[in-house]
């Protein structure tokens, strides 16, 4: 993936866990990520807010104060894998006149609807270089009144904007919700046009397990797969994946629970002696 030599294709998806008290990353976050680290594996960190007004959940990490940035630097100094921080961006809270401005510049046409993301990407690329910037897009999301009328066209345009940056690190996309076909839950697999349109490393996510992940990588549908819930509950997920051994079950009730340990760093490791 760009200048990073990855040792496998299993990526940790971004997972908001609401354990950064006061919006400051805590030592237990370093433990959480190091538990899931493998040599040259890619971990995408949880959504990180750029301002106090950009938060969607309580106690999510921020990056708008010195204290927040310093604790983040501390995490980076630990013997770490590649962690990519996922920034949560939102335009400033709007007043009535600002609303009109935002509509005119950021609403309506295809170009306008992509403008905010494009401006942010351009600014970050300018600061740190395209080969350090990746993006996660959820074209088919329908969350809190946030959806697009034509995601295929919108996100193809968006990918074209990413391609303008040579060596853009990755484009990560989330599948639509799984659907039931012949009584079985199935992943819709609709990301191929975006994958074909994008010039660099592509990461898919959404409902994948070992079998489906292997299949789509072999088929050339994606380069890497990001796993959310399975990786959350299996600290040594890439190892279990490699050995094809049973997985711990995730406990949904603990996803956003704010305990520093329970449901966060206390999922059991694979007992090696059971796999020999
Ligand atoms: C506890 C939890 C927190 C999540 N937080 C985020 C988030 O902050 N941002 C995001 O884009 N996706 C988030 N997701 C979605 C995951 O990154 C992933 O796309 C989703 O879980 C589907 O993948 P999976 O089927 O492998 O779990 C979250 C999912 C879970 C279960």
From TrEMBL:
Span of domain NADH:flavin oxidoreductase/NADH oxidase N-terminal: 2-68, 105-247
Key word Lipid biosynthesis present: yes
GO molecular function, one term: oxidoreductase activity
Entry similarity comment: Belongs to the NADH:flavin oxidoreductase/NADH oxidase family.
Cofactors (names): FMN
Lineage, top ranks: Eukaryota, Viridiplantae, Streptophyta, Embryophyta, Tracheophyta
GO terms, biological process: fatty acid biosynthetic process; oxylipin biosynthetic process
UniProt protein name: NADH:flavin oxidoreductase/NADH oxidase N-terminal domain-containing protein
Keywords noted in UniProt: Fatty acid biosynthesis, Fatty acid metabolism, Flavoprotein, FMN, Lipid biosynthesis, Lipid metabolism, NADP, Oxidoreductase, Oxylipin biosynthesis
UniProt KW Oxidoreductase keyword: yes
UniProt xrefs under Gene3D superfamilies: Aldolase class I
């Amino acid at each position: 993936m760009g200048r990073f030599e990855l040792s496998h294709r299993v990526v940790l998806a971004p997972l908001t866990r609401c354990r950064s008290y006061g919006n400051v990353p805590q030592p237990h976050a370093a433990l959480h990520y190091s538990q899931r680290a493998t040599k040259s594996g890619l971990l995408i960190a949880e959504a990180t807010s750029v301002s106090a007004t950009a938060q969607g959940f309580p106690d999510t990490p921020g990056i708008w104060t010195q204290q927040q940035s310093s604790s983040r630097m501390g995490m980076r100094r630990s013997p770490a894998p590649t962690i990519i921080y996922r920034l949560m961006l939102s335009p400033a809270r709007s007043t009535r006149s600002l609303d009109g401005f935002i509509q005119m510049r950021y609403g309506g046409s295809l170009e306008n609807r992509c403008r905010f993301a494009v401006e942010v990407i351009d600014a970050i690329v300018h600061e740190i270089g395209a080969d350090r910037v990746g993006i996660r897009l959820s074209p088919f999301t329908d969350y809190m009144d946030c959806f697009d009328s034509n995601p295929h066209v919108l996100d193809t345009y968006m990918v074209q904007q990413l391609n303008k940056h040579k060596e853009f690190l990755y484009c990560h996309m989330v599948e639509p919700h799984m659907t039931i076909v012949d009584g079985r839950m199935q992943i819709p697999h609709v990301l191929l046009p975006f994958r074909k349109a994008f010039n660099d490393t592509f990461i898919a996510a959404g409902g994948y397990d070992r079998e489906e992940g292997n299949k789509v990588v072999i088929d050339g549908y994606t380069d890497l797969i990001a796993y959310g819930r399975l990786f959350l509950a299996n600290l040594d997920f890439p190892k279990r994946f490699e050995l094809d051994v049973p997985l711990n079950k995730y406990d949904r009730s603990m996803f956003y629970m704010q305990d520093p340990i329970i449901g966060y760093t206390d999922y059991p490791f694979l007992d090696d002696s059971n796999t020999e």
